[in-house]
Amino acid sequence: xxxxxxxADHEVTGSCHxxxxxxxxxxxxxxxxxxVDVYENVDLPVDAAMIxxxxxxxxxxxxxxxxxxxxxxxxxxxxxxxxxxxxLCSIMLRDCAHIQQxxxxxKNRKAKRAAGAAIVEPVYTMEDADGTIRLIVPCHYxxxxxxxxxxxxxxxxxxxLLGSSSIEVWLEEGAEKRKVVFSGDIGNFNQPxxxxxxxxxxxxxxxMESTYGDRLxxxxxxxxxxxxxxxxxxxxxxxxxxxxxxxxxxxxxEMLYFLRKIKADRMxxxxxxxxxxxxxxxxxxxxxxFQKNIYTCFDxxxxxxxxxxxxxxxxPGLKLAITSDESKAINFDDVPKVILSASGMCEAGRIRHHLxxxxxxxxxxxLFVGYQAIGTLGRALVDGVKEVRLFGEPIEVRxxxxxxxxxxxHADKNGLLSWVQGFEKKxxxxxxxxxxxxxxxAFTTCLNTEYGIPAYAPFSGAVFDLITGQIxxxxxxxxxxxxxxxxxNTYTRLxxxxxxxxxxxxxxxxxxxxxxxxxxxxxxxxxxxxDR
Length: 532
Hints:
- The protein has about 525 residues and is an alpha/beta fold.
- It has 3 domains: about 1-215 and about 410-475, Ribonuclease Z/Hydroxyacylglutathione hydrolase-like (Metallo-beta-lactamase, Chain A), CATH 3.60.15; about 225-405, Rossmann fold; about 490-530.
- It has helices at about 60-65, 65-70, 85-110, 125-135, 225-235, 250-265, 280-290, 295, 300-305, 325-330, 350-360, 375-380, 415-420, 435-450, 490-505, 515-530, and strands at about 1-5, 15-20, 25-30, 55, 80, 135-140, 145-150, 150-155, 165-175, 175-180, 205-210, 240-245, 275-280, 320, 340, 365-370, 385-390, 395, 400-405, 430-435, 455, 465, 470-475.
- The strands form 4 sheets. The protein has an 8-stranded mixed β-sheet with strand order 6-5-4-3-2-1-22-23.
């Protein structure tokens, strides 16, 4: 019974943990790295085709975004997640695949002008995303789900995103029983729309995030509506646009909630009918999913509006840009406007086009409303960079760069402490992950010294024996030398097919001799046909 740490260890993105129990191979999250990759991540300890199950905490791509690559490499197990996460993943994974393919096409067009440049293939394809979605098993909050012999799970609302959860995992191997709780991303308290994070009663071991483990949000909840209205009014008075890089799922819907309030209360004198554009097909689809899950995920404040017949995230003047032509037309309209577009860290998607058209205009404002990882364009702008390159062109940053402090989907240090102290009995050990290097260390020290909670911040590759309660393998942080583009070419697909074949053979151990002999003959016939 082993727990291994793969990704988001002393880093914020790319979450992945591995469990081995009763010869079953399980992943908790399989996320995409965003921003600077600081430390090398170890490979999965088994081939993708040997993974039996994935448990997903939530749909954000830094937790789910590499699942299609797992599929491309031969994974055909089941992926357990909440109902709302299943709805969101069905659109987000396809969107990720679309972005991968678009970027590969753009790089290949550029490569044609450079002699000898290698052909770039997408990390995964739309077919891989579709195949992944077919493996999803939706689960209700608070239901105990029997996964297989010796493994049960339960999803609890953690208040970070629609459908987000902490996951209780009960493991049984022989006479040994252990319970591990994975926090996922712990939500901030008193957020618009979604409920506050819920505690879990007991655990032997806890794997918890620490994104804001070294800082506090403001003592009193800021008046986000007033702050947003002030920025919009000041920008419109200068004749500019307010461009808001916003995560398509979660943050965009929160901003719509605030904007509805601003419009309903007529808070911007002289601009009461200002247009708001949501320029992201993914955000439009996600907004529909939010509305579908009102009764299971919305908090009391939002539900009061629903009871009055008010849609909390819709209002007059809201315009949805779906096609690329609709997106392009936004910046050829001189009327001051609010533009919500993804991605939230400005790394891909339509937001980069809006930055190209608005960053150089001193009358405009780029307003950040979410976490910006180190190494992202969003972080560079927040940190005051004077020039950026977009689509191969240098763009001078003359627009006002602003942010709304405290608007976060992540709990701060006090929120994290509140959650981990919510266990009725102290866990035997807390593993601190999903935080920048210094933050992981600081929060681990805080738990150990100030609260008497045994804590440890593993690096990728560390292995913990859940039965003995000991670190079986220590790991050190190995700095990344150069980020390598993952290429999934045709030969790689063939290798993945071979790995899947080995997994199928393994799953047939103990079958009837007649069936196994027939299977072996079919494999040998295939080998005879292709052996060169």
